[in-house]
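Propose amino acids for all 367 sites.
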């Protein structure tokens, strides 16, 4: 019996390679834990453009709306740079986010102890790091109107509008508070209330929402100071909630704290469906890396961790997510490394599939 449905969209570049390892993990949970998923697969990005002339076919979009969760690999590549903006591979991903109304983007930054030396920060600053950045994904300056390049007084002017409604702030804030309740019960809200009216409204709405979560310790910080504090002492944070623009910037700062983009998953969540599960898209933070595609060099861990997030947030299988993450931690502690994590003495270099083999072996040992 299936416990839920998954739509797999491997995409371009290294996407199919890393997703192949995720599919092996999914099969393991079905065979060894009797957790079977109804899995379908389709095209997105450049692969979809090559097949259909569009980065996301309407039929694929319809499937994404029906399943419990979408797992996406990566999109894009230099061969598509010449395409019109409207059909570039990335438009497929943006359409998924928009039409599924995925307003809450979860970007964890977790540093496995075995990889602490890969960060540019000192080991004592980064070891044991485990923070979550919640970024509002469907509003703010990236979507506000008016926008464009106009001519005023005989010169061009570029205009983008920062715009947020109370309801948009309220729903992402509640998403962040719910996460904080399941973690360390600490939430830091970041904006620029000192110079932006939208920041003032953001702070007011988040403060109001906090009344419904008395167990969570809420703090506020200006986003620029937040960036500085992430670089100074990131372990002071548990959950951070912020808007679309600042979330874009701060999550990339947090990403590099861990030392490798090949280790970072993400989730984009929307409102609950009829079955109570949120609309959900899970994807690694890394890109399609066309320069190493097809060579077995790609690190599949970020994509596997994205599936772990699906276990946790879409299927309420936190114990099984813990099992998978512990298997990855144990593999890394053994010194097993893909090409992006080499550089230390005494490590064992493996291919993309070799990393999958090692993780599956640790999962077997967990039974």
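Proposal:
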């Amino acid at each position: 019996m299936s416990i839920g449905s998954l739509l797999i969209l491997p995409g371009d570049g290294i996407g199919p390679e890393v997703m192949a390892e995720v599919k092996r993990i999914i099969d393991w949970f079905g065979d060894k834990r009797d957790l079977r998923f109804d899995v379908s697969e389709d095209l997105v990005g450049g692969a979809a453009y090559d097949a259909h002339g569009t980065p996301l076919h309407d039929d694929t979009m319809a499937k994404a709306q029906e399943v419990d969760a979408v797992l996406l690999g990566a999109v894009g590549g230099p061969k598509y740079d010449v395409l019109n903006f409207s059909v570039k591979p990335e438009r497929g991903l943006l359409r998924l986010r928009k039409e599924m109304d995925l307003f809450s983007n979860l970007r964890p930054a977790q540093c496995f102890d075995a990889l602490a030396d890969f960060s540019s920060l000192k080991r004592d600053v980064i070891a044991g790091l485990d923070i979550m950045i919640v970024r509002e994904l469907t509003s703010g300056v990236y979507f506000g109107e008016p926008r464009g390049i106009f001519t005023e007084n005989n010169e061009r002017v570029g205009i983008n509008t920062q715009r947020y409604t109370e309801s948009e702030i309220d729903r992402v804030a509640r998403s962040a508070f719910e996460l904080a309740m399941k973690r360390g019960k600490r939430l830091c809200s970041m904006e620029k209330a000192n110079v932006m009216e939208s920041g003032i409204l953001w702070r007011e709405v988040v403060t109001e929402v906090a009344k419904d979560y008395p167990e969570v310790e809420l703090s506020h910080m200006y986003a620029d100071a937040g960036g500085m504090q992430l670089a100074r002492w990131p372990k002071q944070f548990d959950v951070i909630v912020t808007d679309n623009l600042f979330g874009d910037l701060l999550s990339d700062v947090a990403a590099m704290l861990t030392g490798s983009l090949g280790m970072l998953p993400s989730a984009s969540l929307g409102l609950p469906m009829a079955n109570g599960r949120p609309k959900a898209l899970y994807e690694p933070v890394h890109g399609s890396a066309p320069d190493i595609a097809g060579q077995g060099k790609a690190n599949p861990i970020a994509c596997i961790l994205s599936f772990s997030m699906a276990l946790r947030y879409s299927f309420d299988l936190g114990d099984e997510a813990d099992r998978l993450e512990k298997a990855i931690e144990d593999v890394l502690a053994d010194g097993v490394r893909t090409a992006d994590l080499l550089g230390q003495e005494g490590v064992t270099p493996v291919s993309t599939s070799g990393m999958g083999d090692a993780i599956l072996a640790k999962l077997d040992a967990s039974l």
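The mean pLDDT is 95. The chain is about 40% helix and 25% strand.
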